[in-house]
Amino acid sequence: MKLAWLRSLETSHQDCVWACTWVPATDKSPGLLLTGSLDETVKLWNPEDLSLVRTNTGHCLGVVSVAAHPSGKIAASASMDSFVRVFDVESNNTIATLEAPPSEVWQMQFDPRGTTLAVAGGSSASVKLWDTAEWKLVATLSIPRPESSKPSDKGNNKKFVLSVAWSPSGRQLACGSMDGSISVFDVQRAKFLHHLDGHTMPVRSLSYSPLDPRVLVSGSDDERIHMYDAEGKTLFSSMSGHSSWVLSVDVSPDGQAIASGSSDRTVKLWDPKMRAAVQTMTNHTDQVWGVKFEGGGGGVRGSLLASVSDDKSISLYNYS
Amino acid sequence: MACVYIPVQNSEEEVRVALDQLPRDATDILDILKAEQAPLDLWLIIAREYFKQGKVEQFRQILEEGSSPEIDEYYADVRYERIAILNALGAYFSYLGKIETKQKEKEDYFILATQYYNKASRIDMHEPSTWVGKGQLLLAKGDVDQAFAAFKIVLDGDRDNVPALLGHACVEFNRGKYSSSLEMYKRVLQVYPQCPAAVRLGIGLCRYKLGQFERAKQAFERVLQLDPENVEALVALGIVDLQSNEASGIRGAMEKMQRAFDVYPYCATALNYLANHFFFTGQHFLVEQLTETALAATTHGSTRAHSYYNLARSYHSKGDYEKAGLYYMASVKEVNKPQEFILPFYGLGQVQLKLGDFKSSLSNFEKVLEVYPENCETLKAVAHIYLQLNQTTKAHEALKKAVRIDPRDPEAFLDLGELLISTDSGAALDAFKTARNLLKKANEEVSIELLNNIGVIHFERGEFELAQQTFKEALGDGIWVKLIDTETQSDSIRKALHQPMDASLASRMYKDMQIFHNLEKNGVSVDLPWDKITTLSNLARLFEQLHKTETASILYRLILFKFPEYVDAYLRLAAIAKARNNVPLSIELIRDALEVDDKNPDALCMLGDLELKNDDWVKAKDTFRAAKDASNGKDSYATLCLGNWNYFAAVRSEKRAPKLEATHLEKAKELYTKVLVEHPANMYAANGAGVVLAEKGQFDIAKELFTQVQEAASGSVFVQMPDVWINLAHVHFAQGNFPLAIKMYQNCLRKFYYNTDSQILLYLARTHYEAEQWQDCKKTLLKAIHLAPSNYTLRFDTGVTLQKFSASTLQKTKRTVDEVRATVAELKNAVRLFSQLSAASNLQFHGFDEKKIETHVGYCKHLLEAAKVHCDAAELEDQQNRHRLELARQAAIREEESRLAEEQKKVKLEKRKQEDELKKVMQQEQHLERIKEHWKSSSGSKRKDRAQDDDEAGQGERRRRKSSNKKKKRDKKHVDDDQQEYEEDNTNTNYYQQDNQTNYQPNDNDNAPQDLFAAAGLEDSDADDNTGAPSSKRIRGWSESEDDEPEKRQPSSSPVRANSVEMQVSDGE
Fold first, then answer.
1. CATH T-level assignment (fold) for domain A3-147+155-319
2. Which end of chain B is more exposed for a tag (fewer CB within 10 A), N or C?
3. Chain A contacts of B557, Cβ < 8 Å?
4. ipTM score of the complex?
5. Per-residue pLDDT reduced to its tens digit, B457-498
6. Which of A39, A200, A224, A262 to mutate to test the interface with B (most CBs of B within 10 A)?
7. How is chain A split into domains, by residue range?
């Protein structure tokens, strides 16, 4: 289990790079890397040599999240002005522009079958589900307010939703909030199941293990990475090692490793069995906002890992 | 039996006097002597006989009679005998003077002796025996040079005069010229081979002094051959044997001493040596007896000193320091010059040190050092005393010397290291390491304290890897190794450690002891020796520093599992929980700590901090007070906390009551100053003082203070003071030095926060705003939003920035189409931002005044319309330009086609086009005029007469708004303040700057200095980092106090140094 640095592109964007994801290969095109930046652009890259495939414009106020449809044909990008732009990967034609005022847009993810786009809705304390056929809002999964709080209580601001993740089966969905709680939903019944406690600061990233659908990995500003049993409501382990916020976590396609990106400028590879970091990459010079493994699970060993950072650069590593 | 015959006058008869039957009353003899006019030599013989029998009175009586004036007259021509009598008397008094201990009598005897010798000299100047006597007298008086002169006179007359030679030899011996002394003795031997054994004793002593021990021994042995009972020779021989330092030699020496003792039980020197011997064999009873006898037997100072010393040493070794001290003192009193016999001074110093009399002890050790400046033991003792007396520099010098002299003494290095720990950690580390290596070389056990100290220094110097190794070495093997080392964990431990935990309990994780119970259940013994707690806790603290916080928490819990009264572990766990924002757990842990020790100032201070975090102002103050009282006001941290509290209180009050504010500020200043008086190096207090100064508008002094603190803070890993950077940046900002302020904020963000602090980003944005760097301002705010998505203030600020940017672009006289387009785009963004906020405000996500947002929206829309016009105009112009170019091109083509034929037509076309253009341009100009007009009416028109108007209006307005806003948003103060700044923009777009400028002139309005500061927009920001008014501000406050902790805690909870050092650290602090 190790990471080998492959290549980096120093100034991939004009400004901080805040989001990245892999667009799966189609019959026409190989797998591509999709990045979003504060410079209001979204860029597509060929991982072979990190050459620029295309630059998409049209966003205002910084791109905070990107998501790719499992088909590899459609992708979505979201910016701080709370618009989601859904576009055709090949032609860059806008397919739809989504907004659900007054809720903001933070992390997004397509469900594994590609029928639904889940969008973390910020202050609305909910996750918005969009149908990918007609691009209609089909459901709002709201985090229930604590019994005690009055509706006017601004305390529910703490349930501000930042991150979202689908379980590999697509039946469950988890979202992380500013107050450190993680909420788990049953998607089909559009029902809130339970909270996962343990973090005490914003949870900015969530990732299910592709092998064991019960295992949910979370990264938080409290510098910890937690592994939960999302169904049994138990905390397997709490791993410390980053010296600042954990901004992004992703479980490797073989389910054997966890990658994390942190404000401490490092990318770490964790062995969940040892509950310890086994490797630390220090090639970035500013906060690492995104880490993402390529490949759609299935226990494959060996894949690419991408990381993006405030230092405007993109790095690729070989995971084996 | 020897007899003398006194001839009877005028007859042939003689009176026979048996010398052993001399009458008790000397008058009888005297009568006979006088009556018979006996020759003077008989007088002398009889007097001498009396002397031999110890009848000193009679001896004196006869001789004094024999030297009386009548005798002089009667025996006027018997010169030699008269001189002999006088000399005998002189010698007698010389001897008395020599042995007399009282100074007064001593001198009287010497005077008498001198008188007799002088009288003798008057009879015959050249009599050698008188000179010899004089020489002896001078020698006894210690007047070596004159004695030498006297002997020389004799020797000049007769170079073989034996007594003079002996005297001369003695002088030379006393002068330390042993070889020439030896020559003299040899001459005596040649001249007078049958001389008494004592001469050979002199030879032996000279040889001994010259270091020729073998030959000295031969000489002494020869003496013993001649006189087997010569005590001096026996003792001297014993000493020579002792010199050999071999077991057989010492045994032989003791046998000789024993013999000397048998021969003459009152020889003090022999007694001393015997006592010394029995001291080492541990027979203290004999020591006391022998030394007491010796003391009774001698009046000789240095011998008595030895005796007392032996006695003192005996008591010293028995632990009776009082008595030992007394005898050492007695011994010291017998010693004239310390260099003659130094040991009692050392002993006395030791005893006094033991009894706590540092000053006297020091002076005694210093005497030892005068004689032996290179004695390591003494140097160490002196260093120790200096340390107790707080004279660290001197202690340092002494120890440095000690290790230089003996670079193989681990103890000295250990002492040196402990001394240096607070001043020069690098040197301390070297010293400790040397000590460790020396101990290892000597195969001695390296103490856990030493390793702990080395580890702590590595830790402090940021050498974490080495620190970890050292701590682990100190701890050795144990349960902790299994807990730390994940690689070699056995399954049972891993299972216990990795027991899944119900997520709902996860937030109380740091109180969980289940893992240890599980371990015990699985048959793993959980043991922790008490002497390893300190080091284990240091190791845990190191793990914290390395961000292996979970491992650290397990170690702290292990300590608490075994030693639930170890308060520091609770506090560190509480600090970890606090860093994770888990306030309830943190408070709970502190309460646990307070249950163990309800007066622990550290725990109380932390509790106060947490209460502040919960907005429990009154409680927090009480807690800080309790902390201060608990430490009798000696804990500067508690005082500091109270100072901070007062400062927050000053800047927090929602309705600014200048009086209250001033009192709080004054109180804060007083508290900071108090800390500074006690600890001039306390950076936190200095920082606080700087803040108060800045609040009062004394920026230059504040800046200087901050700069100094900043420099001082950049030394240790435990001192992290981002606040001072921020404060410095604030001052730069307040003084209008924006580039420097920006740099400072950025450095601070990168250096201390990994660029994650949205509050500092806000300060940064604000500086960009003032510097009119709109794009930078916008980007900075967007980054801040990205970091703190739920902070709506940042969105509001972004909207205002965009609005301001657009307005300022539109006001420019020259602008490109792109600029105008960008303006339009940004205005649209602003409108969207404000609209979103407006919508959100319906849901009450934040506390903004809806109306105000509406105003913003309205204004932006209005600007947008205006901009659209601009945009249209600009685009029109752009189009026309392009059109014109196109036309020109076409014309050119046409020209090509029909240059001549169409010439007239072309002229016409040209004309028309020109007219067209003219018209368009006219239109455009009008348009511009209109817009300008509009601008003037909306904002510009006010400008001219605003100079005074605005300040008042602006501030008045601001105040009004402030109060009205605050009622609505109780605990959103900082939101407010930021808003306030922007609010002005809202109503009169251009105010802000002017406002600012005028605010720096304190003569308008009723601006108190702190108002000035506030008006400059700093009050929120500055307040923040030092401590912070409510809500978000407190975050900064917190971080400060947290920073305080490590520094503060050094002596206790963070790396705790082993016992001895601990003391030092707290001193240093």
1. Methylamine Dehydrogenase; Chain H (2.130.10)
2. N
3. none
4. 0.94
5. 888 888 888 888 888 888 888 888 878 876 666 777 777 777
6. A200
7. 3-147+155-319
